[in-house]
Write a structure and sequence with these properties.
Largest sheet: 7 strands, parallel
CATH superfamily of the largest domain: P-loop containing nucleotide triphosphate hydrolases
Strand content: 15-25%
Distance between the termini: 66 Å
Strand order of the largest sheet: 3-4-2-5-6-1-7
Number of helices: 16
Oligomer: single chain
Radius of gyration: 22 Å
Low-confidence stretches: 394-402
Number of domains: 2
């Protein structure tokens, strides 16, 4: 059996991960740690929950320990970029666990928090900076930090950064880093543009793959419940929530406005629900997650973007109130349950307008999700593009002047 010790990690790191309860490396860690320790660039395909942070964090810290010395003011030695505030917080928390017993410092910066406080913190320099791209550029524009001393770059959940339009931010950030540098890119999916990014920013990378894309955890019981309308979905969701009153439920909506409205509908009917999405401040998001983790709220309504980085082992049910428009996101969503060897249930409420999305999900998974209720509605065909554009133009013309 391969152990962390046999991978050649620094004894200080071994003590930290032992105290954290880590025993055996996961597949992504076994594949990623040796090439990172050897100084190779890495392109990793792995889903959330496979141990990615340790896969890049442990060898990164090991390499930094071989170059002792405190960072100069306003400088960083290593940069980790992630698409959402929650994921930045999760990564930084894990890295802080790994650096215990060393003199290394981990700092995180995200939007929605005080940029003046972040500027004061960065004035002292940091070993590892974990950041969202937008806030990092804000700090660069303020000359609050320099990246020319950074010799390590990690891009985590890179596919989600592409979806959120961060490619332009990356084009600004990457040239500011020092050279030569070691770059690690981790992604849950590998679209064509990801290959182009790898060619632009990685040097002869080692490609690793921890799990087949589109394969959900074996312990998740999936089901489809047909629904005629949004009102029908709300009725069905409340029935399912009432039938499992002790569990923690994660409910996914497609839009910020729709998710917030759904949360308020649930609260109005006596359910203990909170929500997180892009319209929430950082403080509101953190309070909602704390309440959910503590069981004070047993339902968390979230959008895909906000939910990246949520790792709560006790989630027993995932409900897809709206199917995602990207099939891979369905796998990420339901992967929030059945963590750490537990069982989990995933139910999707599907209307006629979502049948094509369901087919894409089933094609990706190579699996037909069992129907657990309802009557299959007639499939609603999307309007032709020209017709949709015409409707948008008419809608804009009808809007009153501000």
């Amino acid at each position: 059996m391969t152990t962390f010790e046999s991978l050649g990690l620094d004894p200080k790191l071994l003590r930290s991960i032992e105290s954290a309860g880590y025993t055996t490396p996961t597949p992504i860690q076994l594949q990623a740690i040796p090439p990172v320790l050897a100084g190779r660039d890495v392109m990793g395909l792995a889903q959330t929950g496979t141990g990615k942070t340790a896969a890049f964090g442990l060898p990164l810290i090991h390499r930094l320990l071989t170059h002792p010395g405190r960072p100069a003011p306003k400088t960083v030695k290593a940069l980790v970029l992630a698409p959402t505030r929650e994921l930045v917080s999760q990564i930084a928390g894990n890295l802080e666990t790994y650096v215990k017993g060393t003199r290394m410092k981990v700092t995180s910066v995200v939007g929605g928090a005080s940029i003046n406080r972040q500027t004061r913190t960065l004035a002292h320099g940091t070993d590892i900076l974990v950041a969202t791209p937008g806030r990092l550029i804000d700090l660069m524009d303020r000359r609050a930090l320099r990246l020319d001393s950074a010799r390590f770059l990690v891009l985590d959940e890179a596919d989600q950064m592409l979806d959120m339009g961060f490619i332009h931010a990356l084009r600004r950030i990457a040239p500011a880093l020092g050279t030569p540098r070691q770059t690690m890119l981790f992604s849950a999916t590998m679209p064509r543009q990801m290959t182009e990014i790898a060619a632009a920013y990685l040097d002869d990378p080692v490609r690793i793959e921890a799990a087949r894309v589109g394969k959900p955890a074996d312990r998740i019981v999936q089901g489809v419940h047909w629904a005629e309308s949004r009102a029908d979905k709300i009725r069905l969701l409340k029935q399912h929530l009432s039938a499992a009153p002790e569990g923690l439920a994660l409910v996914f909506g497609r839009t910020k406005h729709g998710s917030e409205k759904l949360m308020k509908d649930l609260v109005k009917d006596g359910f203990r629900a909170v929500s997180i999405h892009g319209n929430k401040s950082q403080g509101q998001r953190e309070r909602a997650l704390r309440a959910f983790r503590a069981g004070e709220a047993r339902i968390l309504v979230a959008t895909d973007v906000a939910a990246r980085g949520i790792d709560i082992p006790g989630v027993s049910h995932v409900y897809n109130f709206d199917l995602p428009e990207v099939a891979e996101n369905y796998v990420h969503r339901i992967g929030r349950t059945a963590r750490a060897g537990a069982d989990g249930d995933a139910v999707a409420f599907v209307s006629g307008s979502e049948i094509a999305l369901l087919r894409q999900i089933e094609k990706l998974m190579k699996f037909s999700i069992p129907v657990i209720g309802g009557t299959r509605p007639a499939e609603e065909k999307p309007a032709p593009r020209a017709q949709r554009n015409s409707r948008r133009r008419q809608h804009r013309r009808r809007k009153p002047a501000a």
